[in-house]
Design a protein that fits this description.
Elements (H helix, E strand, L loop, with lengths): L2 E4 L2 E4 L30 H4 L10 E4 L5 E4 L6 E3 L2 H9 L6 E2 L2 H7 L10 E2 L8 H5 L5 E6 L5 H6 L6 E5 L6 H16 L2 H22 L6 E10 L2 E7 L4 H8 L3 E2 L16 H4 L6 E4 L9 H6 L2 H5 L1 H4 L3 E3 L10 H16 L1
Parallel strand pairs: 5-6, 5-8, 6-7, 8-9, 10-12, 10-13, 13-14
Antiparallel strand pairs: 1-2, 3-4, 10-11
Helix pairs in contact: 6-7, 7-13
């Protein structure tokens, strides 16, 4: 599997956000046309009665850059999956996205309507195809203020909203701040309030459900296969998955080194065996490039780790994106609750 280093962790390309992936922007023809996408006709959006503002927009993005629009953005191109999900949660259908097939595999919190233009990979988007959809705003996830993608997009006369990939100091607040920026840019602040209130209520209800759970120590992880060897990525302090678990009253057992942005660590099977009585949670999404869960199931050392041997290693449902928005966060909360109380 092709990998890319990030601080203290290596991670599979398919399962990383754009800020950790970005290479030079490609110009390969995706074969996509500029057909208009269908509206987001989910049951929730069909019943949505919140208003969209109509006046000029001026906001400051995650890196202090001023974004000015004559009116809220309607034709939005987006290059990362969390931001794609966020738009759909706001009942806004993007005109173009990066890697819609990957999105459908890794992020099931919001379904992408048909007809959205595919602009290639998140790491190497096809900018010619992207701007061929005539967007009035491009939303990206940046890792630094001088990310290569921002330099590339600066050559075009279209506003760009740069959102911060992650913030290990408070990943939940960063997730909500990104959602808020997108709501401001699209005039969907009223809808955003409904979604955020729903998330907060969901979290409060879930805390009560797991208050008496016997298990408190946990670790969430995913992994990949490289050269026949299994690498494991624990989501430690500062990771969204870890912090959502701790918001429920659990204790993240991974105390090893993590990168300063995403809170991700790196270890192997032996390293996981040192986590004592912690309960394991892991991604249930099968990576098309290698089924790490199947490889672990066949490993004799793995089978002897207490959490595995005692039936305390639980797969999340497939399609729960570990770097998602408020709707994904609700999926994460539900999975923790369901697996701890079954």
């Amino acid at each position: 599997m092709k990998t890319r280093p990030i601080a203290a962790a290596l991670a599979p390309v398919a399962a990383l956000p754009l800020g950790l992936l970005l290479a030079a922007c490609g110009t390969t023809d995706t074969g996509a046309d500029a057909a208009e996408p269908k509206a987001n006709d989910s049951a929730e959006c069909s019943a949505d009665e919140t208003k969209t503002s109509t006046g000029p927009v001026e906001l400051t993005d995650s890196y202090g850059r001023t974004v000015e629009l004559d009116k809220p953005a309607e034709r939005v191109a987006v290059l990362e999956w969390q931001q794609t999900e966020d738009l759909l949660s706001l009942c806004v259908t993007p005109v173009a996205v990066a890697d819609p097939d990957g999105y459908a595999t890794w992020d099931t919190a919001e379904k992408l309507p048909e007809g959205v233009t595919d602009v290639g990979t998140r790491g190497e988007p096809n900018l010619e195809t992207l701007f061929g959809t005539d967007p009035d705003l491009v939303i990206v996830e940046a890792y630094t203020p001088d990310d290569e993608i921002l330099k590339q997009l600066a050559k075009y006369d279209v506003p760009v909203l740069a959102t911060k990939g992650a913030d290990a100091k408070d990943p939940v607040a960063n997730m909500l701040a990104t959602f808020d920026l997108i709501a401001q840019a699209t005039g969907r602040e009223e809808r955003a309030e409904v979604v955020v209130d729903g998330f907060n209520a969901h979290l409060a209800e879930a805390k009560e459900k797991v208050a008496d759970a016997e298990t408190t120590d946990f670790v969430y992880f995913d992994g990949w296969i490289q050269g026949g060897n299994v690498s494991i990525r624990p989501f430690g302090q500062g990771s969204l998955m870890g912090e959502l678990g701790e918001e429920l009253g659990l204790t993240n057992a991974w105390k090893g080194e993590v990168d300063e942005a995403y809170g991700l660590g790196q270890t192997d099977i032996e390293g996981m065996s040192e986590l004592g009585d912690a309960t394991f949670f892991y991604t249930g999404t099968t990576d098309p490039e290698g089924d790490v869960n199947a490889a672990l199931a066949e490993n004799a050392v793995w089978q002897k780790i207490p959490a595995v041997a005692e039936g305390r290693a639980h797969a999340f449902p497939s399609g729960v994106w570990t770097f998602g928005g408020p709707r994904t966060a609700e999926q994460v909360i539900d999975a923790y609750v369901d697996l701890l109380t079954k």
